[in-house]
Amino acid sequence: MIERQTGGTDVSRQMEQVLYEVKKVVVGQDHFLERVLVAILAQGHLLVEGVPGLAKTLTVKTLARTLRGSFKRIQFTPDLVPADLVGTRIYNQKTGEFSTSFGPVFTHLLLADEINRAPAKVQSALLEVMQEYQVTIAGETHKVPQPFLVMATQNPIETEGTYPLPEAQVDRFMMKIMVGYPTEEEEFVIANRVTGPAASVSAVTSMEHLAELQRECRNGYVDPSLIQYAVRLVSATREPERHGVRDVAPYLTYGASPRATIGLVECARALAFLRGRNYALPEDMVDIAPDVLRHRLSLSYQALSEGINADMLIQRIMKHLPAPEHALESHARYDNNA
């Protein structure tokens, strides 16, 4: 147990160093930054919703520098085609041969800016690389670099010229994060920092080491009672009446998929490692649940007409279905020593 606990502390220490470097450039957004690190450790993708100018691009770009990884940004537009994303075959007239030109998805950290502005074909091309970590060009399969993270952004203000994301693609995102405006104090620091000398960011780890941290995180312990709690939460979004939350039923058309259950377990474990533990506690899952569930709920017209959003429904369900009360630390020690 001592060795495993040390491993959890090592992951936390490494992520703290990464966060320290990122915070040299990015002001505030603590919740957002923590969730980005959770997604990296849990090997999931992020869907971020926020107005322009909230340092979403800056965060991912700075993160890539601290991890010695490659970073690409794609501005999604209505005239984008799949080849612009994954690459294409090019004919060389001099040699009479075809060569493969790889697209921007061949990177470690990919920022898909305003993803809902691209047509369905482009979104489908991104779907394959998010799920399978590979792309197919002219019948040939090519693997993308590992680790691989997609962070896609949506602008909640302007809907003109946008294409709703397919439910299958939305479900592939492990979490959906809502990014808000900074406080006045934070905005003052932002103005000083941006208009002053540029801050230097140091690389604190490599992508190879990050892959090791991800494997270490997968060895974290999640108590069966906590997994059962995740199952009950997700099941309550599908059959509210069976779980005693009948008042939620009129506002839901469809509930969350089994990917939500998996996401709750993976993210709770990753959050626990960020907090210096190699076992998840109930508060880890409670903290992460809204980010994992909010984009997976399909709301009814009644919910939209009454101004009820997914977060309100999740809070109602979680209030009715409390997390297990056991601390779980003793369970973790027993399991790891067995």
From TrEMBL:
This is MoxR-like ATPase. Residues 12-155 form the Sigma-54 factor interaction domain. InterPro entries: ATPase_AAA-3 (IPR011703), CbbQ/NirQ/NorQ/GpvN (IPR050764), ChlI/MoxR_AAA_lid (IPR041628), P-loop_NTPase (IPR027417), Sigma_54_int (IPR002078). PROSITE patterns: SIGMA54_INTERACT_4.
